[in-house]
Each structure stands twice: as C-alpha cells, then as structure tokens.
Description:
Blueprint: H1 20-34, H2 36-53, E1 62-63, E2 68-72, E3 76-77, E4 82-83, E5 89-91, E6 96-97, E7 108-113, H3 117-133, E8 147-153, H4 156-163, E9 168-169, H5 174-179, E10 183-184, E11 186-190, H6 193-196, E12 203-204, E13 210-211, E14 225-229
Parallel strand pairs: 1-10, 2-12, 7-8, 8-9
Antiparallel strand pairs: 2-14, 3-6, 4-5, 7-11, 11-14, 12-13
Amino acid sequence: MQAKDLGTRGVLSPIEEENPIVLIQKKLQSLEESGELQRHQQRLQQKTKAAVERPKPVEGLTKTEKVRVFYYDPTFVVQEDIKDHLGQVIHKKGTKINPLETVSLSEDLLFIDGDDLGQKLWAFDRIQKAAASNQKSVISHQKNNKVRLILVKGEPLALSEEWGAPVYFDQGGVLVKKLGIRHIPALVRQASSEEGLERIKEVKNDTSSTQRPSRGDCPPKGSLLRIEEGGV
Length: 232
C-alpha cells in the first residue's frame, strides 16, 4: 500500500488555542496574585489537620450493655505454595497456619470511645494495673507493655498528649471488623493455656463463620484471641 500527496484542498486556519500549560500557569499566577491560592492551601491544611486530630469515627459500634466473651481464630489457609529465596517450598498450598502458634501477641488491645469519659477512666485504670503488674511506668510504648490503647472515636493526638503515651486509632474500623467486635469497650488478648483447654463459646475465623467445637476439637492452647466486650 502506498500513500500519495493529493495536495491541499479547502482553507487551512492556524491553531489559535493557547498552550494548556501556559494557560494553567496564568491561572495559578492570577490566583496567587489575588490571594485565593494561599486561602485554598490554608483550607486544605486545616481540613487535613482536622482529619488527623479527629479521624472519622468507626461506624456500627454501640456501647456494651452486658459483658460478652468470644474467641477469634486467626488460622488461614495458604492459597498457593510459598517458597523461600532458594525456591524451596516452605508451606504447601492448602496448609493451615495459625500465626499465634509462632508469634505471641505482645500486647493486649483495648478498644474504647475516646469521647466517653467513663470508658477513658476505665481504660486508664486497666493500663495502670497492667503497668503495675509488669513493673513498668504507668503508660509506656515499650514492646512488653501489656496494653495498647486504640480509639474508635475521639482525638488520639490530644489524648496521647494528655497521657504522655502513644494512642492509636482504628482507621476505617479495620481491626474491629476483622475481630468481629460490635460493642465497646472491648479488650483483646491472647487466650491463656488454661483457656485453650476449655470449651470454646464462640470461635470466629477469617470467613466470620461460627463454630462450636467439642472439648477435643479445641485448637491448640494459646492459639486464639480472647475478646471481651464490656466491663465498664
């Protein structure tokens, strides 16, 4: 196939549209001269600061009316062979793995509403008792400190400054959804050896299915997370 120059027919007009980059530069210069650009930047800074100081509350949670205890099983099934850097298979597809059988939960997780004074006082008391039993400072971010405070509502930075210790926030409710927490306050800790031998009241796995195994079907001791809602 060959192309031929058939010449020019009709009237040709030059491109009169302004270069879009130049147009944007002029627009920004105009906004800067009028002060609108600075005002816009200030609004963005204020909005970002407000979101950091008071994140969006986790939805769907209510205050506990009675104590509820259940257990979470973190066991998951390997979807494909996992290999090391040498190509050796570490875990075959279909293998069930429970992270708690290898790595223990170093801290208890305490979920509270940071706007509820009663829950804050209760949480502070729990942390004091945990610190006393651990012979550490009242609140510390050390790895072996027994309680990590996580807000589902409120101002984590302000509370952290007030207590002089790290305070976390469950952004988007990722943790409470994963663990099946519906009411707060809630305390999450690794089940003790004795509890691992007891009949499990409720076991929640990654698919959120509920199982009620017999005594002999209980997972290995210490391989569950014990979740207690309430107690204030």
